[in-house]
Design goal:
With 189 residues, the protein is α+β, with helices and mostly antiparallel strands. It has one domain. It is 69% helix and 13% strand. The chain starts with a strand and ends with a helix. Keywords: Cell membrane, Membrane, Transmembrane, Transmembrane helix.
């Protein structure tokens, strides 16, 4: 990058803007991938177990239990929150070439703040239920279920990790958006 009289040339500025734009797109794609992964893994999370409940003579009585994400409102909210964040990230990526710079930055910034809170709250709600499923609550006499539905809990853990990664990436994107907006406002003064 050439510097002339302490000021960057237009070529250097364009190069920095292009690199920053590419970085933002890559971060947005990573956030999209993380939230889509969390949505799909949790939405398809289901495990069925059959156990012998009793014997009548020599015939066993089989009881079938199913663990599904739809049975827990926190997991349903988790899926919806990550799906909304995925849709938001996809819209931002698709509309990027068609929006004016200022309108796009403001839309991205405000939407980013909302998406960070939505994904983080969905992940936190699901994490609280996951902890309850793993350890139970002795005071309320709620037994843990992860010792019986281990695959269900493992897939739920993967979805939680993906969601927290997505929330972190959205937080980074929102931070970069805030800095960019601040620099643009400061340069106009």
């Amino acid at each position: 990058m050439a510097i002339e009289n302490g000021n960057e040339t237009k070529v250097g500025y364009r190069h920095k803007a292009r690199v920053l734009g590419l970085l933002l797109v890559l971060l947005r794609l990573a956030a999209l991938l993380a939230t889509v992964t969390a949505t799909i893994v949790m939405a398809l999370n289901k495990q069925t177990k059959s156990i012998t409940a009793a014997f009548v003579g020599t015939n066993p009585i089989i009881q079938t239990f199913t663990a599904k994400f739809q049975q827990t409102p926190a997991f349903v909210y988790f899926v919806i929150a990550n799906a909304v964040a995925s849709l938001y990230n996809l819209l931002v990526l698709l509309l990027r070439p068609f929006m004016k710079r200022k309108a796009h930055e403001i839309f991205e910034h405000l939407g980013g703040m909302v998406m960070v809170s939505v994904v983080a709250s969905g992940a936190a709600a699901a994490a609280a239920m996951a902890e309850l499923g793993k350890n139970g609550n002795l005071h309320a006499r709620w037994n843990p279920i992860c010792n019986r539905f281990d695959a269900f809990c493992c897939r739920g853990g993967v979805a939680l990790i993906a969601s927290f990664i997505g929330a972190s990436l959205l937080m980074i994107l929102n931070t970069v958006s805030t800095i960019t907006l601040y620099k643009n406002v400061a340069s106009q003064d």
